[in-house]
Design brief:
10 helices, alpha/beta, eight-stranded parallel sheet, TIM Barrel, 8 strands
Length: 308
């Protein structure tokens, strides 16, 4: 395992403050619990730094995650950045984001995410008010994380092309339908096409995360994930992909250490500098994490355009 790994995607929640009504206590018993900083297993598995990501549509959760990252416990756990929630339609959005950034300091707010995957309107990302809010996030110097369904990838490509000054991160490779693809490999065809179109946009990077929960939770194998990861490597390249655990959601199908092992297996054909990008460098660059210089890549990537 390399010396430096950045987990670019995990969650923390205390349900009394940030309810998680989507958790079914029967089918999701493994995560029907609170998960706090001291529970995060990243450092125990040699992970250098992490990015904690929102799980509730609440300004209060964003405030809380920033405070957690700044705490002694957060620093000890390696939390180097926060992707929080923001109300894209708030009339004072720019001012609120500026205040959050000013108050969070090093290891604070690095991005914003909203639950686009919950939007039923297929034209949601085409709306002028949605795009204006996302543009405001970008103008604040923050990344916009895209948590979407696989049928929304094409809309994300149009969004990223329309807002070239905003940095986007695609969570979980856009949730490819991996469970269906075991029986029908053609189930990935539309996702492949749309992901390739999204990757054309140089202002987009993507996370190798959340894949086991798109596969069959009980019967998945690493080989089931390989087609999605290989396609992502083909269209984005290692310098625009980053590792994430999606812990604790990932516990529905895998434990933290095993996911690290699976990712290493899936990346085993890459050169050392390419693996270093996926495992640390891309996240450090994309989120502007305050990490030691050795996390940064030692090679240049001629296909990668500078991001704003």
């Amino acid at each position: 395992m390399p010396d430096v790994v950045v987990d670019a995607h995990h969650h923390l929640w205390v349900r009394a403050r940030t309810p998680q009504p989507w958790i079914d206590p029967v089918t999701m018993a493994a995560i029907d619990a609170d998960f706090m900083t001291e529970d995060l297993p990243a450092s125990a598995h040699g992970v250098t730094a992490t990015v904690v990501v929102q799980s509730a549509d609440l300004w209060a959760e964003t405030d809380e995650l920033i405070a957690v990252a700044a705490s002694d416990a957060g620093r000890a756990a390696g939390i180097a950045g926060v992707v929080g929630w923001a109300d894209l339609f708030a009339p004072d959005l720019a001012e609120r984001l500026a205040a959050l950034r000013a108050g969070s300091g090093s290891g604070g707010l690095v991005g914003v995410r909203t639950q686009v995957q919950a939007e039923a309107d297929p034209g949601y990302l085409d709306r002028a008010d949605v795009r204006a809010g996302i543009a405001t996030v970008g103008a604040a110097g923050l990344v916009f994380d895209l948590v979407i369904r696989h049928d929304q990838v094409a809309a994300c490509a149009a969004l990223a092309a329309a807002l070239p000054d905003v940095r986007f991160v695609l969570d979980h490779l856009g949730k490819p339908p991996l469970a269906a693809a075991v029986a029908d490999p053609g189930a990935l065809d539309t996702w492949r096409r749309d992901l390739a179109a999204l990757a054309v946009c140089p202002n987009v990077t993507a996370k190798v995360s959340g894949l086991v929960t798109e596969a069959d939770w009980d019967r998945w194998r690493p080989a089931d994930l390989r087609p999605a990861v290989e396609h992502a490597l083909d269209v984005f390249g290692p310098s625009r992909l980053m590792f994430g655990s999606d812990w604790p959601v990932s516990l529905l199908a895998i434990d933290y250490g095993m996911w690290l092992e699976v990712v290493h297996e899936l990346l085993s054909d890459l050169a050392a500098d390419e693996r270093a990008d996926v495992l640390a460098g891309t996240a450090a660059r994309t989120y502007s994490l305050d990490l030691p210089a050795f996390v940064q890549p030692t090679t240049t990537h001629p296909t990668e355009e500078p991001l704003p």
